[in-house]
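Need a sequence for this fold. Nothing fancy.
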């Protein structure tokens, strides 16, 4: 039974070389490995745009600008990590305000041993919904490829 709504905010960054930024993440409490867009949970008293700016600063270590709203979940999605939560995700197109020194890796995800996240760019040709792990991210990846 669903007891809570979990609001998540994610940034979709496509650089000038047409490469998409993704995060390979190890979730320690259930030992699951996922590839997702950068972002995370909305904090109380925070707007969605402020959330993705904060999340990028915390996770990637850079300031970003929100360019445009891309997608908000429009279907029911139960959390993959807590069966009592319904997930609603907001996705924004973002651009970095600083130089990103993140490698390109078009192959398999690289899950870090000592940190929870590893960021990589994927060339547009190799990027598709199958790269992403979570259902809403898959939908957004497909939308991104169709729209751009």
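Here you go.
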């Amino acid at each position: 039974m669903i007891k809570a709504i979990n609001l998540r905010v994610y940034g979709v960054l496509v650089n000038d070389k047409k490469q998409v930024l993704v995060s390979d993440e190890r979730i320690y409490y259930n030992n699951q490995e996922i590839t997702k867009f950068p972002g995370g949970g909305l904090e109380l008293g925070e707007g969605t745009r402020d959330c993705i700016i904060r999340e990028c600063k915390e996770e990637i270590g850079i300031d970003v600008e929100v360019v445009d709203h891309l997608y908000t979940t429009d279907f029911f999605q139960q959390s993959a990590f807590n069966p009592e939560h319904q997930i609603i995700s907001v996705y924004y197109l973002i651009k970095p305000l600083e130089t990103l020194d993140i490698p390109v890796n078009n192959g398999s995800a690289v899950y870090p041993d000592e940190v929870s996240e590893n960021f990589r760019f994927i060339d547009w040709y190799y990027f598709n919904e199958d790269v992403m792990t979570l259902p809403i991210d898959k939908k957004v990846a497909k939308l991104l490829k169709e729209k751009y």
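For context: The chain has two helices and seven strands.
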